[in-house]
Amino acid sequence: MVGGRRWAFHDPTAGMGGVVPTRTARLWLAVVGVTLCFLACLASFQLGMTWAGVLLAGLSAATMVNIGWVAYRRHKD
């Protein structure tokens, strides 16, 4: 606290020009990411690259956790 007041974030451009909220953009980006990771995971297993498939499966799981967290935070607000 500075001077007895908390610093608060204020976006002066909020609601102008059809700006997409940050959590919505992050959610869409995560959905695109999990789709691409999952498809690359399937392709890796089809090509016999098991190590890449396992790595991409782990990334897909982490992205699913991110989607759940962002959806929770978006619903909470």
Automatic annotation (TrEMBL):
Bilayer-crossing regions: 27-45, 51-72
Keyword annotations of the record: Membrane, Transmembrane, Transmembrane helix
Name of the protein: Uncharacterized protein
